[in-house]
Amino acid sequence: MQSLITRSDIRKHIRTLRVALTESEQHSAASQLVTQFRQLPELTSTKNVALYLANDGEIDPSLAIQWCWNNNINTCIPVLHPFSKGQLLFLRFTANTELIPNKYGILEPKLSVTEIVPVADLDIIFTPLVAFDTRGHRLGMGGGYYDRTLTPFINSPTPKPIGIAHDCQQLQKLPSKDWDVPLDKIITPSKTWSW
Questions:
Q1: Which residues fall in the annotated binding site?
Q2: pTM assigned to the model
Q3: What is the set of domains in the chain, with CATH numbers?
Q4: pLDDT top residue among 139 and 3
Q5: b vs e for 137-152, b when ≥16 Cβ sit within 10 Å of the residue's Cβ?
């Protein structure tokens, strides 16, 4: 792992690892993840959360989404902002939400202004990530969407960012940048990491 010097090298390596997981391994990881997920104390008083739709070998949070629906927690999914480059909007997500691929080929809810939930109204934003380290640093895909979304709320109690990842995405130490927003908590199928 010491040979992975650049953030780009790390992204490539970890994405290769997670894409190589079999369908059975992905399903098992998703089942174990929801076990960790529903034990989060933050969910006891939560009204609105943001999750994501899995892509590129990301751990699938669909069972966590279903758990939220079953427990009357409003669930939102990120959408690329149509006018503000590099920004995210969050739209309410239900079993009947129409999905369309965005410019990256990732499914997202079809934009509807009546379904937008302001970021400030979210209690938790569960973020996907490519890699994380033992200090809570998160490495994303490189677009900076989540960092831009979370930066204005760094000193606010909500929305609380919590990362979601496969166990294989954990590294000892990641190279970080000033704009990277660290996470206080990351959940994997086998463990909940807190800092």
A1: 7-11, 53, 58, 138-146
A2: 0.92
A3: 7-194 (3.40.50.10420)
A4: 139
A5: bbbbbeebbbbbbbee
